[in-house]
Amino acid sequence: MTSTARTPLVGVVMGSRSDWETMEHAASVLTELGVPHEVQVVSAHRTPDLLFRYAEESVGRGIQIIIAGAGGAAHLPGMLAAKTRLPVFGVPVQSKALNGMDSLLSIAQMPAGIPVGTLAIGRAGAVNAGLLAAAVLALHDPVLAAAVDSYRARQTQSVLDHSDPRS
Ligand code: RP5
Q1: The domain spanning residue 141 has which CATH number?
Q2: Ligand 1: which of 12, 14, 16 to mutate, judged by most atoms within 8 Å of the beta carbon?
Q3: Would you say residue 2 has pLDDT above 80?
Q4: Does residue 37 form part of some domain?
Q5: Ligand 1: does its nearest atom lie under 6 Å from the Cβ of 72?
Q6: Are 84 and 55 in contact (CB under 8 A)?
Q7: Residue 72 gets which letter from DSSP?
Q8: For 75-110, how does the pLDDT look when each residue is reduced to its tens digit (9 = 90+)?
Q9: Which three-class secondary structure string do you get for 79-98?
Q10: What is the Å distance from ligand 1's center to 121 Cα?
Q11: Mean pLDDT for the stretch of residues 139-146
């Protein structure tokens, strides 16, 4: 497990090392906004006991939000949500066989009572999971709120500064 120096508030987990190419975008947004977070591979199928332990211990360790990415039979976000009351944001990783539709449906189609906030497939979902986590934490953190506002303002300015798609 890797973590930033301060106690992590967000746990970024993924089903496989192969998911990092996608999930690094969530971690990178959190880093940019100064949100303490940790990163770890936790596989629902290959390390089920670790998955249960991670979910059970996360509240006590001070984690406030879990971002979980998985592909294919993407059971990680849902099973984490089944074992903790923490908000879980699920990122469907783009699978090779079915382009991520399998991941998306596996994560989105939760039964009533166990919610997973499902993001878009791939990089956009990972970026937005990081932004969503930051926005939730910013509700009670004015410094983070300013960082999120500033991120959005920079993004807007960048679009305005490059409005001619030919150049
Ligand atoms: C899922 O299976 C992982 O989340 C990953 O997206 C997918 C493939 O895993 P690897 O075979 O690349 O380890 O559990």
Answers
A1: 3.40.50.1970
A2: 16
A3: no
A4: yes
A5: yes
A6: yes
A7: S
A8: 999 999 999 999 999 999 999 999 999 999 999 999
A9: HHHHHCCCCEEEEEECCCCC
A10: 14
A11: 98
Tell me, yes or no, whether 82 lies in a domain. yes
Asked whether 16 lines ligand 1 (CB < 6 A), one says yes
* In-domain check, residue 166: no
- Whether residue 167 lies inside any domain: the answer is no
Q: Is the CB of 138 under 6 A from ligand 1?
A: no
Average pLDDT over residues 143-159: 98
Listed in sequence order, the residues at least 6 apart from 131 whose beta carbon sits closer than 8 Å to its beta carbon are: 29, 148, 151
- What 8-state DSSP symbol labels residue 114? S
Total-model pTM: 0.96
- The count of structural domains within the chain is 1
CB of 18 within 6 A of ligand 1: the answer is: yes
Percent of the chain with pLDDT over 70: 97
Distance from the alpha carbon of residue 33 to the mean position of ligand 1, in angstroms: 28
Range of the domain at 12: 2-161
With beta carbons less than 8 A apart as the criterion, state whether 77 and 52 touch.
no
